[in-house]
């Protein structure tokens, strides 16, 4: 798999990253190096092995269904660039 | 199946539904903030929900249990290993920039829902999967001309996304599916099914194909349909729109459309074409979820009786007609009410009084069964008086109206208004004799073949007894007297 300049432009836009056109080829080169490095893994024979979602030899722990958090709107909003009446406010999102 | 007649031939609808059902739990899916509806803005938000740096999600065990319970209620396969993934997109009410969901390995696999259609046909609709995911926060666009207000109270609340197979062929079936799914969720106690408050939301996938065709056409997804009525209206509109496009030589573009409630139309959502590129990957903050088979078995053992089983029991135990049984089990509260009325009584008679008179009275007053002015015990008392032949059907209706108005018991009303039916054959016979004696000419006409006069005699005796004569007894006596024995 190789990444071209067009792919860089697309994933940058999906990730909301501003990468100027003149830098996109350079970024593509860097990403291709990373991919080539990861692709060494293809040399390992994984025939008959179930794919893993996580390499830890452990399973998910759960907590009881008890409410112990909340009731602190001002703490949650403390770092918000803009707020009104305990709401976060953002530039109008039009659909 | 609804066949749509186009200009160039007949068309068939293919419908699949995606339902988002909010899980009933005290706390959120991955945080310990509360889930109750209608709290003050941002009052139910933890640092996890607001995606503060370094916060880690911890799964709520109740939400797992509710998803498994729902899966079992849908007769579905429970996946003992499932995985949480990140679904990446940017929106102001999604603080982390991703939603924790389940993509390749959902907690519940294939299941089914049976629909009892009004024409007596049973349709089996496949369930593709059910997975757990976080809800987003709420954006309000109408509070200010230049800003959108964001409340994160809903952010992180557990949702079950329940996806159906494209098995439905009409708006009516889609409506029946939603009603049945909602009933199952309510019976199970896993979602309150309240579409107005948004705790159950529906997206419709619809495509059209020519009748007889087996391949599917290109589909559109319709979002924002928040009532069963709107789902049916949206399907009606969208199916005609697609047929028009196809018949005029156009092609359907796979896209997301919005249902515009005010205009009654669907319209294209202005969104970028790559909006659906969610770049899912396993959430590195969460390990795979592995369930103990004993945990699943324990939930299975404690499942309540579900609508299909209840319906079957009502048919065999109470001798109800399948349609009446379907109506009674549609809401658990109605089924419970009916069983209280029917306990130790004539089940068919009880079903009749609940589905005809009580439903009629409730509809007229816009009340739910929980708000019924006549309790199940009181209605049972009325049924007792009918069974004991103290009240005729007609008198019982009058008593029932009075019960609705006054809240008094049937026995009280009968006593106060002197409404007891006359079942003493001697007393009725006396009235019959008097009427026949006073109408000698009509008796002669009847005997010479004018059968229709029978109703006249019944009416006269009823009038004389103020409607209290037992109708069966009266008919019997009248027939006997008129068929020849001397007056």
What can be said about this structure in brief?
The complex is a heterodimer of chains A (95) and B (487). In chain A, 35% of the residues lie in helices and 9% in strands.
Total domain modules of chain B: 3
Oligomer: heterodimer
C-alpha end-to-end distance of chain B: 63 Å
Whole-number average pLDDT of chain B?
92
Radius of gyration of chain A: 22 Å
Let me know the number of strands of chain A: 3
Main sheet summary of chain B = 9 strands, mixed
Give helix and strand order of chain A, one letter per element, not per position: HHEHEE
The secondary structure category of chain B is: alpha+beta
Helix content of chain B: 25-40%
Per the CATH scheme, the topology name of the domain at 5-40 in chain A is Histone, subunit A
Instruction: Using the alpha-carbon principal axes, give the shape of chain A.
Output: flat
Instruction: Report strand % of chain A.
Output: 5-15%
- The Cα radius of gyration of chain B reads 30 Å
Query: Ranges of chain B with pLDDT <50 over ≥5 residues?
Result: none
Largest sheet of chain A: 2 strands, antiparallel
Structure report:
The complex is a heterodimer of chains A (95) and B (487). Helix content of chain A is 35%, strand content 9%. Chain A is an alpha+beta fold and 95 residues long. Chain A has a domain at 5-40: Orthogonal Bundle (Histone, subunit A), CATH 1.10.20. In chain A, β2 (83-84) and β3 form a beta hairpin. In chain A, α1 (5-14) packs across α2 (21-38). Chain A starts with a helix and ends with a strand. The mean pLDDT of chain A is 91. In chain B, strands 1, 2, 7, 8, 11, 12, 13, 14 and 15 form a 9-stranded mixed beta sheet that branches. Chain B has a 3-stranded antiparallel beta sheet with strand order 6-5-16, with no helix packed on it. In chain B, strands 4-17 form a two-stranded antiparallel sheet. Helices cover 39% and strands 19% of the residues of chain B. Chain B is an alpha+beta fold. Chain B is built from 15 helices and 17 strands. Chain B has helices at residues 61-73, 171-188, 228-247, 293-301, 307-318, 322-329, 332-342, 347-365, 376-387, 393-406, 410-417, 425-438, 440-447, 453-464, 471-482, and strands spanning 3-5, 10-22, 59-60, 81-82, 85-88, 98-101, 111-116, 122-134, 138-140, 147-151, 158-164, 200-210, 220-225, 256-260, 265-268, 281-282, 289-290. The N and C termini of chain B lie far apart (63 Å). Chain B folds into 3 domains: 3-298, no CATH class; 305-417, no CATH class; 425-482, Orthogonal Bundle (Arc Repressor Mutant, subunit A). The radius of gyration of chain B is 30 Å and the shape is elongated. Chains A and B meet through α1, β1, α3 and β3 of A and β3, α1, β10 and β17 of B.
């Amino acid at each position: 798999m190789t990444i071209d300049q067009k792919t860089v432009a697309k994933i940058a836009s999906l990730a909301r990253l501003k990468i100027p056109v003149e830098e996109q080829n350079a970024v593509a080169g860097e990403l291709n190096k990373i991919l080539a490095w990861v692709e060494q893994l293809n040399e390992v024979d994984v025939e008959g092995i179930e794919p893993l979602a996580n390499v830890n030899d452990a399973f998910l722990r759960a907590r009881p269904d008890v409410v112990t958090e909340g009731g602190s709107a001002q703490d949650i909003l403390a770092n918000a660039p803009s707020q009104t009446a305990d709401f976060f406010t953002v530039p109008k999102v039009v659909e | 199946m609804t066949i749509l007649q186009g200009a160039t031939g007949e068309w068939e609808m293919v419908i699949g539904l995606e339902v988002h059902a909010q899980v009933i739990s005290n706390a959120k899916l991955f945080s310990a903030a509360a889930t109750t509806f209608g709290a003050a803005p941002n009052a139910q938000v933890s640092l996890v929900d607001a995606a503060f740096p370094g916060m880690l999600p911890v799964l709520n065990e109740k939400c797992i249990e509710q998803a498994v319970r729902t899966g079992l209620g849908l007769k579905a396969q429970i996946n003992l290993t499932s995985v949480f993934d990140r679904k990446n997109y940017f929106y102001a009410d999604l603080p982390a920039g991703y939603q924790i969901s389940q993509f390749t390995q959902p907690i519940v696999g294939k299941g089914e829902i049976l629909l009892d259609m009004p024409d007596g046909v049973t349709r089996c609709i496949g369930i593709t999967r059910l997975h757990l995911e976080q809800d987003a926060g709420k954006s309000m666009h109408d509070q200010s001309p230049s800003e959108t207000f964001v409340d994160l109270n809903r952010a992180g609340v557990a949702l079950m996304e329940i996806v159906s197979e494209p098995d439905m062929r009409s708006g009516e079936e889609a409506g029946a599916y939603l009603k049945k799914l909602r009933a199952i969720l309510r019976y199970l106690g896993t979602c309150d099914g309240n579409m107005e408050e948004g705790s159950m939301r529906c997206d419709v996938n619809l495509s059209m194909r020519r009748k007889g065709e087996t391949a599917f056409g290109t589909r559109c997804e319709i979002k924002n349909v928040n009532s069963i009525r709107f789902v049916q209206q949206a399907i009606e509109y969208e199916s005609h729109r697609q047929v028009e496009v196809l018949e005029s030589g156009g092609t359907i573009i796979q896209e997301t459309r919005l249902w515009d409630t005010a205009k009654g139309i669907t319209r294209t959502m202005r969104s970028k074409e790559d909006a659906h590129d969610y770049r899912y990957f396993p959430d590195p903050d969460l390990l795979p979820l592995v369930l103990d088979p004993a945990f699943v078995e324990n939930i299975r053992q404690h499942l309540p009786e579900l609508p299909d089983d209840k319906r079957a029991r009502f048919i065999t135990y109470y001798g109800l007609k399948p349609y009446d049984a379907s109506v009674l089990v549609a809401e658990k509260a109605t089924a419970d009410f009916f069983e209280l009325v029917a306990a130790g009584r004539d089940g068919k008679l009880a079903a009749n009084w609940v589905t005809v008179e009580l439903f009629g009275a409730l509809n007229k007053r816009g009340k739910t069964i929980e708000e019924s002015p006549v309790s199940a015990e009181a209605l049972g008392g009325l049924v007792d008086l009918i069974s004991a032949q103290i009240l005729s059907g007609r008198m019982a209706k009058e008593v029932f109206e009075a019960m609705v108005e006054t809240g008094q018991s049937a026995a009280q009303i009968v006593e106060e208004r002197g409404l007891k039916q006359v079942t003493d054959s001697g007393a009725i016979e006396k009235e019959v004799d008097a009427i026949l004696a006073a109408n000698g000419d009509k008796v002669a006409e009847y005997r010479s073949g004018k059968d229709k006069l029978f109703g006249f005699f019944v009416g006269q005796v009823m009038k004389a007894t103020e409607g209290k004569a037992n109708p069966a007894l009266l008919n019997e006596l009248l027939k006997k007297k008129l068929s020849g024995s001397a007056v």
